[in-house]
Amino acid sequence: MKTKNLDKSDWIAISAFLLTILLLALWSIDVSVSALLANGFVSNGFFLNDPTQVYHIGLYIIILVQFANFLIILHITSITKDDSKKDES
């Protein structure tokens, strides 16, 4: 069974998906900070209603997504360098 290597466009699509998750994490931080300032709770469908926990989960998601995007950028640049070396020879 042979596996398919991912192309640059595949990596860019994965990165766009991670960007969407990043925006959702930012939105959850926005909602939780608003709830914290109003001394309330998060009641818009989250599985947690403690705004402090939602805030920290949003921060953790942002850290993970940024790290994953950094790895994708490194991978794409290494593919580009490998392609340019193949073209020279």
Descriptive report:
This protein has helices at 8-37, 51-88. By secondary structure, the chain is an all-alpha fold. It has one domain (17-79).
Level of helix content? over 70%
Distance between the amino and carboxyl termini: 31 Å
β-strand percent reads under 5%
Order of helices and strands: HH
DSSP summary, beta strand count: 0
Number of domains as seen in the coordinates:
1
Overall mean pLDDT score?
83
Count the helices. How many?
2
Q: Poorly predicted ranges (pLDDT <50, ≥5 residues)?
A: none
Largest sheet descriptor: none
List keywords for this structure.
89 residues; 0% strand; mainly alpha
What would a concise description of this structure say?
This protein is an all-alpha fold and 89 residues long. It is 76% helix and 0% strand.
Detail the topology: elements first, then pairings.
Elements: H1 8-37, H2 51-88
